[in-house]
Amino acid sequence: MNYILCDPINIEKYYPFTFTRPFAEMRVFGGTIKDQWEKLLGSKVSYLTRSYLSKLYPVKWKVGKNIIIFSDSPIDLDLAETYELDVTQEDIDSKRIWIQEEKLLKKGYDFQKSLSDFLDMSNFLNHVKSNIDCSSNPFLNDDDGPILIEDGVTIMEGAMIRGPVHICKGSVIKMGAKIYGPTIVGPYCKISGEVSNSIFLGYSNKAHDGFLGHSIIGEWCNIGAGTSNSNLKNNYETVKIWDYSETKFKDSKQQFLGLYMGDHTKCAINTSFNTGTTVGVNCNIFGAGFPRNYIPSFSWGGYSGYKEYDIEKALQTAKIVMKRRGLNMSSEYQKMLQEVFSMTASFRK
Q1: Could you read off the pLDDT of 254-293 as tens digits, one per residue?
Q2: If DSSP states are collapsed to H, E and C, what string results for 77-124?
Q3: Among 174, 183, 232, 254, which is disulfide-ready with 192 (CB 3.0 to 4.6 Å)?
């Protein structure tokens, strides 16, 4: 059987993170959504995503029966929204399969998830146990949930971790860091200061003091020293958050909500983010005062105002950052970022 994870029809709900990845690449406790499906099915799966992402995340059709799973449905075959498609070799050779791809992406499924649901990881903790012996170290506590530490992780002196926490391969937890679960630190991150109820998708740094709570940070981000975010309003009301599909702020129905930061975004030292701030892809934020609660992708500036981040300069910085981790930006990845730059132009006006 060939399984394919299809992007949801309401992909805008998960921007800015799904500007640069399929929905199935979002990270939950224990791995990405794709990882969880592969564990459940016991086989590899591929992605059916938007055309500008398809070179980086190709779909793999096979002759015969293909099972399409809408990736925002529950990770459970009995509950998931699925669709069967019989494919012939002629469909593949003649590329008629593209017509079916378009239909499936428009068909979609709406499980009424939101980005804030990723900060509630209780559904993914039921069958997970710590893979370390917390009783041997007074700075690790799994009383409230498991602590998973993958290979190649460095935990420096004095770090304090209270589960549920998942730290992925190659990440570094620096001296004196305080991490409260539920929190996920994706691969090859550097974390310090205080972190609570947050997700780092990978390759990002919060390497200095400062508070981050109820937040999602994309890949290749850098959070300046002393930067903090608010995750609770002074009047304790629910938090309004930018809605990309309706292009306006909407009530999240959440009392605690922090910062959403898209891939390749950087902020300067001592940046202070208001409750429920959304920052797009490839932004550079600096200067005194609180930045806006919504900052469009490819913006350059801060409290005093923003201008469009020159695409060539943005790409050059991204290449340097990736090169420092031993990765070269592929032409497909560069084209993807250029497409995101174009498709977000209207938000910068």
Answers
A1: 999 999 999 999 999 999 999 999 999 999 999 888 999 9
A2: CCCCCEEEEEECHHHHHCCCHHHHHHHHHHHCCCCCCCHHHHHCCHHH
A3: 174
Domain ranges of the chain: 2-113, 119-348
Lookup: tokens for 231: 């995750």
H or E segment to which residue 318 belongs:
helix 311-324
Task: Report pLDDT digits (tens) over 7-39.
Answer: 998 899 999 999 999 999 999 998 999 999 999
Question: CA-to-CA distance for 288 and 77, rounded, in angstroms?
Answer: 50
Residue 94, exposed/middle/buried by CB under 10 A (0-12, 13-18, 19+)?
A: exposed
Those residues with Cβ within 8 angstroms of residue 76's Cβ, 6 or more apart along the chain or in another chain: 40
Tokens 């030292």 appear where?
A: 269
Strands 222-223 and 172-173: unpaired
Residue 233 half-sphere exposure, CB side, CA atoms within 13 Å?
15
Residue 185, strand partner residues: 167, 200
Residue that is written with structure tokens 């809408």 in the block: 70
- For residues 69 and 94, what is the distance between their CA atoms, to the nearest angstrom? 24
Residue 135 has pLDDT above 80, yes or no: no
Structure-token pair, residue 80: 């998931």
Nearest CA among 27, 56, 20 for reference residue 262? 20
- 328 residue type, one letter: N
Q: Which of 28, 224, 25, 239 is nearest to 120 (CA)?
A: 28
CA dihedral 238, 242, 248, 253 (to 10 degrees): -20
User: In terms of Cα–Cα distance, which of 308, 309, 275, 313 is closest to 294?
Assistant: 275
What are the beta bridge partners of residue 284? 266, 300
Name the class of domain 119-348: mainly beta
